[in-house]
Specification:
Mean pLDDT of chain B: 90
Largest sheet of chain A: 7 strands, mixed
Order of helices and strands of chain A: EEEEEEEEEEE
Number of helices of chain A: 0
Number of strands of chain A: 11
Helix content of chain A: under 10%
Shape of chain A: globular
Number of helices of chain B: 0
Distance between the termini of chain B: 31 Å
Order of helices and strands of chain B: EEEEEEEEEEE
Low-confidence stretches of chain A: none
Helix content of chain B: under 10%
Strand content of chain A: over 45%
Largest interface: A-B, 26 and 26 residues
Largest sheet of chain B: 6 strands, mixed
Oligomer: heterodimer
Distance between the termini of chain A: 30 Å
Low-confidence stretches of chain B: none
Mean pLDDT of chain A: 90
Chain lengths: ~120, ~110
C-alpha cells in the first residue's frame, strides 16, 4: 500500500550494530504497528502505538525499541542487532472507525528485509 | 500463528477454483481477515468478514465462516497465475482498546498452467 512506506527496503548489517527502520504513512491514521515475519510463523507483533504519547509492547518486544516522532512516523530500532533478528519487518496502520464499528482494519507497508550477519 | 492454523501449501491449475482453509480458536473474535502477500511485497488486505456473517462474496472471492467449528475459508474462482501468492488468515480479538490481530503462518498458493 503506497500510503504506508518503509525505509530501507533491504538492509544487511553485522552483529552488535544499531539499526533503525523507518515507517511513514499518509493515511492519517492514529494507530501504528511493527511486526516481524519469519518463515512458517506468520506475523508477530513487536510494538504498537495508539498516538504519539501512547506506545505499548507487543508479544516479542525484547531487543527492540520504538519512537513515535509524529502521527505519521513510527520508527523501530534494534539497539544491538543479533542474527536471530534476521526477518522481514512490517509496519502497519489502522483507524478504529466510527463509534460502534470497530473494524480497526490494519494496512501494511511493503516491508523491510533485514539480515544480521 | 499458533492459535490460527492454515495448511502451508496449495497447488491448483489455472482456471480451477482454489479453496484456502483456516481454523481459529477464539470464539469471541469480532472480525476475520484474509491478506495476500505477493513476492517481495507487503500484505494486501483482500477481504474481511464480521463474525455474525456466514458468507461474503466479492467478485472472484468468496469467504465462508463456520463460527460453530471456528473455520474460515477463502475461495478464489477461476484462479489465475496472478493469484500466486501467500495468503494469510487473521483473527481479531478486541482487547485493550484495539483489535489485536493473530495471524496464521500463511498458505502458499501456486497456480500452474
Amino acid at each position: 500500500d503506497a500510503d504506508v512506506t518503509q525505509t530501507p527496503r533491504n538492509r544487511i548489517t553485522k552483529t552488535g550494530k544499531r539499526i533503525m527502520l523507518e515507517c511513514s504513512q499518509t493515511k492519517g491514521h492514529d494507530r501504528m504497528y511493527w511486526y516481524r515475519q519469519d518463515p512458517g510463523l506468520g506475523l508477530r507483533l513487536i510494538y504498537y502505538s495508539f498516538d504519539v504519547k501512547d506506545i505499548n509492547k507487543g508479544e516479542i518486544s525484547d531487543g527492540y525499541s520504538v519512537s513515535r516522532q509524529a502521527q505519521a512516523k513510527f520508527s523501530l530500532s534494534l539497539e544491538s542487532a543479533i542474527p536471530n533478528q534476521t526477518a522481514l519487518y512490517f509496519c502497519a496502520t489502522s483507524d478504529p472507525g466510527l463509534a460502534g464499528y470497530q473494524t480497526d482494519t490494519q494496512y501494511f507497508g511493503p516491508g523491510t528485509r533485514l539480515t544480521v550477519l | 500463528g499458533e492459535d490460527v492454523e492454515q495448511s502451508l501449501f496449495l497447488s491448483v491449475r489455472e482456471g480451477d477454483s482454489s479453496v484456502i482453509n483456516c481454523t481459529y480458536t477464539d470464539s469471541s473474535s469480532t472480525y476475520l481477515y484474509w491478506y495476500k502477500q505477493e513476492p517481495g511485497a507487503g500484505l494486501q488486505l483482500l477481504t474481511y468478514i464480521f463474525s455474525n456473517m456466514d458468507m461474503k462474496q466479492d467478485q472472484r472471492l468468496t469467504v465462508l465462516l463456520n463460527k460453530k467449528d471456528k473455520h474460515l475459508s477463502l475461495r478464489i474462482a477461476d484462479t489465475q497465475t496472478g493469484d500466486s501468492a501467500i495468503y494469510f488468515c487473521a483473527e481479531s480479538r478486541f482487547s485493550g482498546g484495539y483489535n489485536k490481530l493473530i495471524f496464521g503462518a500463511g498458505t502458499r498458493l501456486a497456480v500452474h498452467p
